[in-house]
Amino acid sequence: MSRPGRAVLLTGVGKRYDIVSAFAAHALTVAADPSPLAPARYAADVALSPPPIADPGYVPFLRDAVDRHGVCAVLPLTDLDIEVLAESDLPALVPAPAVARATYDKYETHHLLLRHGLPSPPTCLPGEEPASYPVMVKPRRGSGARSIHAAANHAEQDFFVGYVDEPVMVQQRMDGPEFSIDILCDLEGRCLNAIPRTMIESRGGESIKGTVIADPELIELGRAVGEALGVRGPCTVQAFRDRTSGLGITDVNTRFGGAFPAPMYAALPGRTYPELIVRMATGGHVEPHVGEFRAGLTFTRWYWQIELDADLRPTGRDIVSDGPRRPRARPGLP
Question: Which domains does the chain possess?
């Protein structure tokens, strides 16, 4: 057992090499993903292949990993096992089971937000008439912007309700810019920080370009959501600022968001979310510092890769020597 009591276990790591690498700088990091080709496994100190989430052996497998490696915190990197972890006895940084269940269903999320006095666009189910058009037809348990369709009228709405092959809901289309707020709460559900960013460009529901902004209204909205829902650990809130109705929350993910680099760059020294999580999970105290971050920073993401040999071991080679070229001071200038 290495570094007992100072290891983290990340589940469903997939291609989130950035998150795994960031945790590996502060603790022994265990990556659990069923795919041997998940790139982020190769950023971890230990890589494990768990059974499927629905398998009765999933939680016992993770429990064994926690015991063997001295894990102090378990964090899911996808939505798929948040509720399972919330119902387990693992040291998982997830909300209570009822909140985990509700935030995995966007229709239930809408009502959860309203019960806490938080803004959510008018939302209904198929068969109910929305208050106005245009609307968005969305899967209730969708992710990655899958099967989301805009409908300008009743006929288009009915078409997309029938076209999408899973339960859907109908939500007012927000007329204004979209934002995300990356939140971190402590183990008691107090918001430690809330860092808003613009959504300049997304692909497959994942933000690939954005700018961190010091917007007091968004910061307060993030804090209010985190503390109202009893978030433990990271959370990402997506919201639009409608030109008529103001802010409306369209999604709450009680995990790290796709634009994880944004709060990493924006955090003040010693206050990145991974290092604060390790500090809290090992018994350290962290004071709330909501609104204390560096605004005005923009991230733009790209793709890289790992070469594996016939036994799926990294070769250490890259397509260019010493890895990707360091960025120029100003693109297009010598």
Answer: 7-92 (3.40.50.20), 101-105+175-300 (3.30.470.20), 122-172 (3.30.1490.20)
Please state whether 288 falls in left (phi above 0), alpha (psi between -120 and 50) or beta: beta
Q: Is the peptide bond before 50 cis (omega within 30 degrees of 0)?
A: no
DSSP string, 71-86: EEEEEESSSTTHHHHH
CB atoms within 10 A of CB 45: 17
Q: How far apart are CA 115 and CA 56, in angstroms?
A: 34
How far is the C-alpha of 91 from the C-alpha of 62, rounded, in Å?
10
Q: Is the pTM of this model over 0.90?
A: yes
Candidates 62, 60, 75; CA nearest to 26 is 75
Contact at 8 Å (CB) between 50 and 23? no
Query: pLDDT in tens for each of the 334 residues of the chain?
Result: 344 468 999 999 999 999 999 999 999 999 999 999 999 999 999 999 999 999 999 999 999 999 999 999 999 999 999 999 999 999 999 999 999 999 999 999 999 999 999 999 999 999 999 989 999 999 999 666 678 999 999 999 999 999 999 999 999 999 999 999 999 999 999 999 999 999 999 887 788 899 999 999 999 999 999 999 999 999 999 999 999 999 999 999 999 998 999 999 999 999 999 999 999 999 999 999 999 999 999 999 988 999 999 999 999 999 998 888 888 777 665 5
